[in-house]
Design a protein that fits this description.
The chain is α/β, with parallel strands linked by helices. The chain is 29% helix and 18% strand. The chain starts with 7 loop residues before the first helix and ends with a strand. Bound molecules: 4-O-methyl-beta-D-glucopyranuronic acid. The site of 4-O-methyl-beta-D-glucopyranuronic acid has 11 residues, from loops.
Amino acid sequence: MRTLTIESKLWLVFFPLLLGSNAGALARTADEAWLRYPTLSGRASALAHPITIIGKGEILNTAAGELIQGLGESATEVSPGAVLPNHDAFVLGEWQGVGPLLTELDRSRAPSGDGFWLKTVQHKGVKYWVIVGASARGVLYGAFRFLALAAEDKDVSTLDDREIPAAPIRWASQWDNLDGSIERGYGGRSIFFEGAQVRPDLTRVREYARLLASLGINACVINNVNADPRLLKPEAVTSLARVAEVFRPWGVRLAISVDLSSPMSVGGLNTFDPLNPEVAAWWRMAIDRIYQAIPDFAGFVVKADSEGRSGPSQYGRTAAEAANVMARPLAVHDGVMLYRTFVYNHHLDWRDAKADRARAAYDYFHPLDGRFEANVVLQIKYGPIDFQVREPASPLFGAMPHANEAIELQVTQEYTGQQRHLCFLVPMWKEILDFDMHVKGETPVKTIVSGAVWGRPLGGYNAVINVGLDPSWLGSPLAMANLYGYGRLAWNPDLSSEEIVEEWIRLTFGASPKLIATVSRMLLSSWHSYESYTGPLGAGTLTDILGPHYGPGVESSERNGWGQWHRADHQGVGMDRTTETGTGYIGQYSPEVARLYEPPFRCPDNLLLFMHHVPYSFVLHSGKTVIQHIYDSHYAGAEEASTLVDEWSSLEELIDRERYQAVRKRLEYQAGHAMVWRDAVVNWFFKLSGIPDAQNRVGFNPNRIEAEDMKLSGYQPVEVTPSETASGGKAVVCRQEGPCEAVLKYDGKGGRYDIKVQYFDLNNGISRYQLWLGDRLIDSWSADDRLPSNQLNGHTSTRHTIPGVELKPFDSLKIVGYPDGGEPAPLDYVEVIPSAE
Ligand code: GCW
């Protein structure tokens, strides 16, 4: 038994050392997101208590360190040991140590798994704030929970909060490549890799582990599922061990994605057939080598037979055979094998009305039920296609009673605005998690993935997160609500979206009621708005699926092998997935669920086009026709998006300058880009259907002057592809050296106007623009964003607003464009709109 008492100042000095060599300095390089303890309320800082740790260990030290950091001067002493102090104190420790010392604690409520119990106890005349976990990890989660409660201004003078996480698998996945790039990452370069190496400085990795731990996330996959086999080379294992060491004090276990062909590409064998004994021996050797360096290694994720990755089908073997060959040696070390069910043929025949990518996962995996080892977990994307803005829950969730399942979610907003658009995804995830699959009485997806329905030992959650070196992690402060929300749901899927939002706002921005009300509204409405101006009625996001999955590109889904078809023609739109006349997909659900979707008149409006091909004149439950709904929702959604700027502006006094400005800039951009989406989609459907908008908006833009109709000098008109991504299908470009000019004579009434200039911001140059009113320069700006294309299209179309310009009849407005690099200062149109005030 050893009792050590350290004065606070000394403790703060030695704290990094005590946490081990990788703890690094306390200095932060990135946003602390929801862990900004300076916002802790007066109530918490009034708690003046020493900290006693019962037991020893790195993770327990981390828990104490967090308390000290959160409570500041009030946490004055740390005494690791095995005795209770004779004064008021925080008492931290695992149940096996704390339980026997505190007989006041009801044994039947001992935490289990990664769970904890926060409990105030009166013991021999003194008061303890007990933070007890079933494991050290649970203690750490309890400490974070306590600090969150205090920071949310909850009463922490009396505690009785026992929480057990919903599922054992609560993982984060990064799609980082060894060269430092990140597949579908929108927050800068990798925090893990650069130049084919693990980064020398892992400060950001430590900070990330802290964020993950605060949510109860217990493992992190650090490389792309399109896996680089080099990570399995002997020399790579040493650098992986460095990452694991940085993770360890936070209870985060390291995991990696592996490529199934590694026995050949790394091991030098002439096969990777999973049934070949040499292949099995090679996996065992490779896995044992990892565990020698990283004893708490979490396991593998595998993407096989998918989008060109190698897989067991090359040897006529099954996914179960492939998964098991790795799972067996992993099991020896308590490791798990997450096998992704995102397996489909991306060379489907689009002419075949029965072909259907949505069927693939079920068709392939369902017959394999019962054939996977006990430590294999099937990782199932929430919907049957691919992280779209609206999909039904994957039927596979209900189809594998003898397998462990994990749901795969996507925090990185690949198909939902890439963090440039506000799209808070928790309400969508909750719809999926709460969706009743009706496979054994009431069986919402969340109870299936937790393992509860079929008594499975493993199961849970894995989300693609893709933070990067950007100080705000995901590229935008508001996008962090998705990371927070993911972690909270993986811990407790019964939390409501409203509860999650409120917690996050309090922890991130503070407790002002106006702030909470406004930001809650913004977040909670954002998914619906985004869906409305991109792809309503379950049609998918209608984005450019062959390009960066960002701006509109409706046609790109059609007539190719990728199977993201919406099958729009002159008469109608949607995929017929019925059992009656379609692909039969609906038949993959239980009869109760199938009855929800078929026939079309029963199907909910928001999934109609996912399940059915209907004429444009089909009348929805709302009473509108499909085509009018497409028009209306795009106008309404874009309108909603534009109100976000004003809502946010009303909070200027309540938020620090840096975050206020960063978010404002994004919301202004979003307001413009939502209109690009709106115009592209409504024009595309109008052209195809020939059915006019009952409200006469489509094709009529009374305040708009096309650049190609202005008086041009130097500028040349060009056709834009796809044509609906430019107003009138055309833009103007400056292909000459010097500046080009486009002039318009204002012929409206005198007054105050907002002038909106629509231009294209390509990523291969930084053009500059000036706006002149007569001979007066009234504004200038640069096209310096890094949008994901070097072409004029729906990804690059951008709006710049010059508010409150006084105009008189016949004023001349001139835009001067200075091209740069490959970017020809392109212009689409100008709108002159009366100012709101
Ligand atoms: O959504 C798609 C992405 C790919 C990704 C794939 C997958 C890592 O566009 O970039 O590849 O899904 O989930 O495997």
